[in-house]
Write a structure and sequence with these properties.
Blueprint: E1 12-14, E2 21-23, E3 31-37, H1 43-55, E4 64-70, E5 84-87, H2 92-97, E6 105-109, E7 115-120, H3 125-134, E8 146-149, H4 155-166, E9 171-172, E10 175-178, E11 184-187, E12 193-194, E13 196-199, H5 203-216, H6 218-225, E14 231-233, E15 236-241, E16 247-251, E17 264-269, E18 274-276, E19 279-280, E20 288-289, E21 296-300, E22 305-307, E23 310-318, E24 321-323
Parallel strand pairs: 3-4, 4-5
Antiparallel strand pairs: 1-2, 3-6, 6-7, 8-21, 9-13, 10-11, 12-16, 13-15, 14-24, 15-23, 16-22, 17-21, 17-23, 17-24, 18-23, 19-20, 19-22
């Protein structure tokens, strides 16, 4: 069985979400309560759910997500407006957590998806949960494993990239995800992401951008992360626009097969005439990061991150990825 201090096992399982699945790596940034039960539609579980409803009152001040993990076939279509049901019919989640399918067990994780408590079902379980949540901060404030660099691009080069964006028909930016067959596809989801992208096809701009990253970013990645970058992909100029409620919800950049080679995200701001649009890392802190014009934030593509809504103006950014060729499973690079 998993123990306090362990990283929570990551899983994707059938769930009561609109798209029918839940990827647990997306639960970071919140305190998560996983209630493992043999079946949801029993008198004992109904009492548990009533108790969980009371815990949700704390959601006003503490970010909480609740999951009921059931192995019963009769529960496969049950839903709730207040929490998620995980339909663990093949016992995958129970097995990786080391939970007996006949037991009722509560597991609590922190925003970094580390195990904090493993509790058997008894009369004091819910008081323990409440006390734990009340006595912990609403958000963590731990160091972010990211690099913030100034002067990666000169002002004139930033202006050239913005000019290129406006003269080359930018398109709505999609999200890389999987289809029903497990293949990587790009899907538009305005509720999750609102951004316009323009792929750079001018070879002079591409060479100029690569040269500056090689001179000014690659040595810092080698020093900070002990990784030698040998390749880059996705040369684009992007725009988050307040008029379109530009934003990007919490996500990771390497979760599908077409993007697993991406080791580092490089987020270069091209202007500073906007408000909002800060980069955040919910696993670690609610602190927002905003590099100056020409400056870059570099971080692991595996980190959960988000872009807060733009509240005024437009944020222009160049957003390439860096990788080491040893990390690539395929010579085919995704286009977005």
């Amino acid at each position: 069985m998993i123990l306090p201090g362990d990283p929570a096992p990551i899983f994707t399982q059938k769930c009561s979400t609109n798209w029918g699945y839940y990827s647990f790596d997306m639960a970071a940034g919140k305190y998560n309560i996983l209630m493992f039960v043999p079946a949801a539609q029993t008198l004992v579980t109904h009492k548990i759910i009533d108790a969980l409803q009371k815990i949700l009152e704390l959601k006003i001040s503490v970010p909480i997500e609740i999951f009921v993990v059931t192995t019963s076939l009769q529960d496969k279509n049950i839903k709730s407006d207040n929490f998620y049901y995980i339909y663990d019919l093949d016992c995958t989640v129970h097995n990786i957590f080391g939970i007996n399918v006949d037991d009722i067990t509560c597991v609590i994780t922190d925003p970094m998806l580390r195990i904090k408590e493993v509790l058997p079902h008894n009369s004091i379980t819910y008081e323990i949960i409440k006390n734990y949540l009340k006595n912990n901060p609403s958000s963590q404030n731990t160091p972010i494993p990211a690099l913030l660099l100034n002067d990666v691009l000169e002002e004139d080069f930033c202006h050239a990239l913005i000019h290129y964006y406006h003269h080359n028909a930018p398109l709505p930016s999609g999200v890389l995800t999987k289809n029903a067959n497990g293949l990587t596809i790009e899907k538009l989801d305005p509720l999750f992401k609102r951004r316009y992208d323009c792929k750079i096809q001018n070879q002079n701009l591409i060479r100029g951008l690569q040269a500056r990253i090689i001179r000014r970013v690659v040595p810092e990645i080698r020093k900070a992360f002990q990784c030698t970058v040998t390749g880059m992909d996705r040369m684009i100029v992007s725009c988050y626009d307040a008029a379109h409620n530009g934003h990007f919800a919490p996500h990771r950049d390497n979760t599908v097969d077409g993007a697993k080679h991406r080791l580092f995200a490089i987020s270069i701001n091209l202007n500073n005439t906007f408000e909002g649009g800060e980069l955040t890392f919910p696993e670690f802190s609610d602190q927002g990061f905003r590099p100056p014009a020409g400056g870059a934030l570099i971080f692991s593509s595996a980190l959960l991150h988000a872009v807060r809504p733009i509240t005024k103006g437009k944020r222009y950014a160049c957003l390439p990825f860096a990788f080491n060729e040893d990390s690539m499973n395929s010579a085919n690079l995704p286009s977005a």
